[in-house]
């Protein structure tokens, strides 16, 4: 028997008919019950399993963030699950078994708010990353008071640092302290969120940075 955790639209654990529900590293999932395997997994199954493991491992760093930045696409599922669905299809490159995360194609925020243009990230003074963008307030629903969402991920440590309360869109620049990543190479993204937190933009890749 399955147990519903968060109402009828929430995740569940256990088995309902031929569907099995559970949670893996904070992300809820559902899958078909596996029948008796008559042989080894097919190449396609192995590929999908490898992609699943890779993207789950990556996204677990952003669970709290994704509950906010993917909420517009979390129809009956969690924000992290919505991000999983998008990124397993778009955020992985390579040929099995040599898959890798395509950071430039990953989305860590998805919504209708316009992002700023020309986002970039560079190493600042020790342990800092300087972000910059071109202010485009007034473009569609973009407002001067929108806040920058700054995201940094360190592959070597498999850790992330982010903020939902960055500088206003009109500032066109901000700095994030990532001193715990000093000496490491990191991947960076910029997105925007309205002052009331109701709308977000798609994230844009801001580049790879060697943190001083």
Structure notes:
The protein has 212 residues and is of the alpha+beta class. The chain starts with a strand and ends with a strand. Strand 9 (147-154) and strand 10 form a beta hairpin. Helices cover 17% and strands 33% of the residues. It folds into two domains: 3-101, no CATH class; 117-210, Sandwich (Immunoglobulin-like). 32% of the residues are buried. The protein has helices spanning 43-59, 63-69, 79-90; strands spanning 3-4, 12-16, 19-24, 27-32, 92-93, 100-101, 117-123, 128-134, 147-154, 159-163, 173-177, 185-193, 204-210. A four-stranded antiparallel β-sheet has the order 1-2-3-4, with no helix packed on it. Strands 10-9-12-13 form a four-stranded antiparallel β-sheet, with no helix packed on it. It has a three-stranded antiparallel β-sheet with strand order 7-8-11, with no helix packed on it. Helix 1 crosses helix 3.
Summarize the structure.
The chain is built from three helices and 13 strands. The chain has 212 residues and is of the alpha+beta class. Helix 1 packs across helix 3.
